[in-house]
Amino acid sequence: MAVKTIKTPAVIIGGGVAGLAAAIDLSRRGLSSLVVERGPRLGGRVADFCCKATDSCVRCGACRLADLVRRVAARPEIAIYTSAKPVAAEADGDGWRLTLEPQRNNGPAPVVELAGGPLPRRSQVQAGAVILAVGATPFDPSAKSRFGYRRVPGVVSALELEGALEHSLAELAGGRDPRRVAFIQCVGSRDESLGHLYCSRVCCGFALRMARVIQARRPGTEITFFHMDVQTYGRAWAGELAEMREQMNFVRAMPGEVTAGPGGPQVVYAAGGRSQTAEFDLVVLSQGMRPPVGAAALSQLFACTRTSDGFLGSDAEPVASGAAGVFIAGSARGPMSIVESIEHGAVAAAAAAGHLQPLVREAAHA
Ligand SMILES: Cc1cc2nc3c(=O)[nH]c(=O)nc-3n(C[C@H](O)[C@H](O)[C@H](O)COP(=O)(O)OP(=O)(O)OC[C@H]3O[C@@H](n4cnc5c(N)ncnc54)[C@H](O)[C@@H]3O)c2cc1C
Ligand code: SF4
Ligand code: SF4
User: Fold this and answer.
1) Which class for 362: exposed (0-12), middle (13-18), buried (19 or more C-beta within 10 A)?
2) Which ligand places an atom closest to the C-alpha of 342?
3) Residues 117, 173: Cα–Cα separation, whole Å
4) What does the pLDDT average to over 43-64?
């Protein structure tokens, strides 16, 4: 069967919030694009996040996804293929020629059926610009074995807590009613032993918002927050943080280990110059972000550079990749919040549009 070739001004790899924001911005500038998403649905990581409003909105940004999907659906110049990824790429004249391969997916169904759907067969794409919006990878807490992840019952990752927030927390706590909950921050970030010196920027806010939801839904739950310092990257948090400090126990210490105790996981930490042990029903490990899983392969495929932390792109410029016509958008470039990723997607689109302008002009005069 002949390989189909799709011609488009821009191809966007990754259908998370950054990729969708880039597609919308290109369309506002009169440029069509093709979004290629590896998974079965759009939205990336944000599609798994629930609303964390308590008595009021806590500005987690999760509902921005529904707005982006609605805007993408209303723009016929944005084409989408899900269950597809690039397996080959070569610079071709003024643009790039990509080979896309269909992916098998048993994951959750699409939130909204958009034009395109799953890629039916191996295809080629001829594009003037490429935007890599492949996201970051959550740190796997089992790489820090001293915290007892997958060894000590009642020790879970922040993403697992997020998944259970709307359901039952008792299941996470090994059947116990979780009345004593601890968060351990900076798991996998700001960690010299791993060579991950950067702050992941989102995990303090993520944990604090979940702690608020737990306290609002289960009054009387004792929350302990083990931290080096609290990074919330937003002045809007100052008032809320002061309020939380009255309702939760903030302990400035990085625990040494988590062990199995008679009544639940026990956290061992140093405070006041001596070793202390505290028992909880649930211990939540706030994992940070790592470079995208396929960063090495993608940087080879598109001849692009990586930042000093291993993400895609360069330390010196926000969206440049080192390769002509290839741009980086969203958390593939480094840890970013949802709102920052959306804004970064638009910046990448503006750069791609600038690159495409002479090509569009030439085509119009041909
Ligand atoms: C533990 C954790 C907690 C967080 N908490 C918060 C929070 O409370 N508030 C907040 O604002 N942000 C939070 N974030 C950050 C938030 O998830 C990101 O800002 C957001 O997901 C970034 O969007 P993105 O589009 O860059 O990447 P993603 O959401 O990761 O989307 C990338 C997309 O690209 C696709 N893809 C990857 N590789 C390929 C490929 N080769 N081909 C095709 N498609 C591909 C993926 O399937 C995915 O759909 C958190 C992140 C983590 C890890
Ligand atoms: S920003 Fe977050 S907390 Fe606020 S309404 Fe949207 S999803 Fe809910
Ligand atoms: S956001 Fe908070 S938990 Fe995450 S790495 Fe930075 S300081 Fe640590």
Assistant:
1) exposed
2) 1
3) 39
4) 92
Please report which confidence band the pLDDT of residue 94 belongs to, taking 50, 70 and 90 as the band edges: confident
β-sheet bridge partners, residue 222 = 180
Tens-digit pLDDT profile for residues 146-174: 999 999 999 999 999 999 998 888 888 88
Distance from residue 293's CA to the centre of ligand 2 (Å): 28
74 and 173 fall within a common domain: no
Of the residues 288, 308, 335, which one is the last residue of a structural domain? 288
Q: Which residue segment(s) compose the domain that 42 sits in?
A: 4-136+291-365
Q: What CATH number has the domain bearing residue 247?
A: 3.50.50.60
> What is the reported pLDDT for 5?
79
Same domain, 254 and 279: yes
Residue 288 beta carbon below 6 angstroms from any ligand 3 atom: yes
CA 356 to ligand 2 centroid distance, Å: 36
pLDDT of 114 over the 60 cut: no
Half-sphere exposure of 185 (CA within 13 A, CB side): 25
Pick the range with the lowest mean pLDDT from 57-61, 154-158, 219-223: 57-61
Measuring from each residue's beta carbon to the nearest atom of ligand 2, which residues come in under 6 Å? Answer: 51-53, 57-63
pLDDT at 234: 65
User: 174 with 223, same domain?
Assistant: yes
DSSP string, 87-126: EEEEEETTEEEEEEEE----SPPPSS--TT-B--S-EEEE
Query: Closest ligand 3 atom, CA of 189?
Result: 5
Q: Are residues 173 and 206 in the same domain?
A: yes
280 and 172 inside one domain: yes
- The angle that helices 17-28 and 338-365 make with each other, rounded to 10 degrees, is 40
Instruction: Read off the pLDDT of residues 304-341 as tens digits, 9 standing for 90 and up.
Output: 999 999 999 999 999 999 999 999 999 999 999 999 99
- Residue 15 Cβ contacting ligand 1 at under 6 Å: yes
Co-location of 282 and 319 in the same domain: no
User: What is the domain count for the chain?
Assistant: 2
- Looking at the structure, tell me whether residues 78 and 144 fall in a common domain: no
Residue 41 backbone dihedrals phi, psi, to 5 degrees: -145, 165
Which among 269, 288, 307 is the end of a domain?
Answer: 288
